[in-house]
Every structure is written in structure tokens, then in C-alpha cells.
Amino acid sequence: MCALKLDKLKNIDIIGDVHGCYDELCLLLEKLGYALDESCITSNQPALKHSDNRKIVFVGDLVDRGPKIKQVLLLAENIIKHGGGYCVLGNHEDKLCRYLKGNPVNIGPGLQTTIDQLEPISSENKKTLVAMLEGLPTHIMFDDKNLIVVHAGLQEKYHGVSSKRERVFALYGDVTGRVDDFGLPIRGHWEHDYKGKAYVVYGHTPVESATWCNKTICIDTGCVFGNKLTALRYPQMDIIEVEAGKNYFQSMK
Fold first, then answer.
1. Mapping DSSP to helix (H, G, I), strand (E, B) and coil, where does residue 115 land?
2. How far apart are CA 200 and CA 190, in angstroms?
3. Spatial distance between the Cα atoms of 22 and 68, rounded to a whole number of angstroms
4. What is the pLDDT of residue 1?
5. How many alpha carbons lie under 13 Å from residue 182 in its C-beta half-sphere?
6. Using the 8-state DSSP alphabet, how is residue 120 labeled?
7. The dihedral of CA 59, 63, 69, 75: what is its sign?
8. Inter-axis angle of helices 91-100 and 164-172, to 10 degrees?
9. Strand partners for 243
10. What is d(CA 38, CA 215) in angstroms, rounded to the nearest whole number?
11. Which residues, 6 or more positions from 75, have their beta carbon under 8 angstroms from its beta carbon?
């Protein structure tokens, strides 16, 4: 897993943390102008097409918490396989990958929903899923390095860099080592001081509404917690959203 540099690609739709909210994802794709053929998801045919040849980019955290994690994974796998888009590595995918490989992990209620929905998983399917997860980059550079897509944000000094520090920042954000009254990590606000030339689009920490701060924007609007699933259309910079069908997972706050 490393940084992936794609210098030319434009005309993409960046989708925030899905967390197994497959129905909302399908509605959002339709709203973005994509044609989805669900019968192709598990075949050798592309399940997703766009008349303007636009591409999808997921900011990670496809898994955990939500009701249809397997369907989301299968669709993402199809999209990536057939060149319809990309996905960066989220901390939830990273943890799932470690679990599938037999490494010790703390299984919280979020990961447990994924385990329950994937089990029983054959050794062949497990191998395929691990290969997909291990192939996800920590961040992607688009449009001649004018756009960075990453899971939890990324300071300019890490753009295009593959290192341990870049990986931690990309997956977890500006960690401080402190926790709040709910036991959740307190993160610094790197975006307040961001002066980089590239736009940075990320997710990870749910916000009520996607709002620009300097040239950065968080598009995780907490669909799995009953809020919205959000996409940023680039380079148009349009925000496209659908409402969550329900609150699927109780937030700790």
C-alpha cells in the first residue's frame, strides 16, 4: 500500500464514507448520472457506466457499521477492476485487512458488523478481498497534482510521499494522542493552516455538511449515522447529496 500518482485524470466524482450504505450509494450514483447494472457486479462486465466517461473515487471506509457491506465491497471491486474508478485506503479497510490476514485486532461493534455480513467467507473470496484491500493506495494525486484524494486528510509535505508518517496521517488524520470525554481521538485542525496549491478532499471524521476550509473539504457527512451521503463533483466543485434512509449505527456522541 503506497501513494498512487495519477497526474492527468479529471472529471471525477468523489464519494464520502459509505460504511455499508449501499442503497444510498446507488441513489447517489444515479443522481450523479451513472447507470448501474447490478446484475454485472459479480460478473466480468462493468456494472457502472457514465455517458460522459466520468470516474468514481471513494475516500475509503466502505466497510463497517452499515447494513449492506458485502454489496458495497462487490460494487467497489467491480468499479476498480473495470477501470470505472478508484478507492483510497481507509482506516476501516486497513483494520479489516489485518483481521482477514489473521493479525490480532480489537473487534469493536463496527468491525463486527462486517465480520457478521461476510461470514462465512471462502478462502478464495478472502484471498481476493485481501488482495483488493492491499492494493488500495493511501492517497491519489489527480489533475497534474492539483487534486489530492485521501481518507483522513493530508498536509502538503506528504503529497506524493510514501512513508510511515504519511500513512498514519492519511488513515487517521492529525492525531494528537488525546481523547475526548467519549473516548474518541482528539485531532488537530491541520486544514486551518493549509496553504498548499492542491485541493484536498477527504472524509474520516463526520461533519454535518461539507464545507470548504482553505482548499480542503471533508465530505464524510455521516450517512451511516442517519445524515447524508455526499459527493464532490470535480472540477465543477458541485456538492451532490442524498439523505440517509435511516440511522443504521448509534454514534458514540
1. helix
2. 12
3. 6
4. 56
5. 6
6. S
7. positive
8. 110
9. 228
10. 36
11. 22, 25, 36, 41, 47, 48
Residue 120, all three cell numbers: 462465512
Asked if 95 and 87 count as a contact pair (C-beta separation under 8 A), the reply is no
Whether the CB-CB separation of 202 and 219 falls below 8 Å is answered with yes
Percent helix, strand, coil in the chain, to 5, is 30, 25, 45
Checking 21-24 for CB contacts under 8 A at 24+ apart, the result is: 21/66, 21/67, 21/68, 21/72, 21/223, 21/224, 21/229, 21/244, 21/245, 21/248, 22/66, 22/67, 22/68, 22/71, 22/72, 22/75, 23/68, 23/245, 24/223, 24/229, 24/242, 24/243, 24/244, 24/245
Q: Walk along the chain (253 residues) and give the pLDDT tens digit of each residue.
A: 567 777 688 899 999 999 999 999 999 999 999 999 999 999 899 999 999 999 999 999 999 999 999 999 999 999 999 999 999 999 999 999 999 999 999 999 999 999 999 998 899 999 999 999 999 999 999 999 999 999 999 999 999 999 999 999 999 999 877 777 766 777 779 999 999 999 999 999 999 999 999 999 999 999 999 999 999 999 999 999 999 999 999 876 5
Cell numbers representing residue 110 in the block: 463496527
Identity at 164, one-letter amino acid code: K
Q: Is 150 exposed, middle or buried (0-12, 13-18, 19+ CB in 10 A)?
A: buried
Q: Give the pLDDT confidence score for residue 182 in this predicted structure.
A: 66
- What is the DSSP secondary structure assignment for residue 226, as one 8-state letter? T
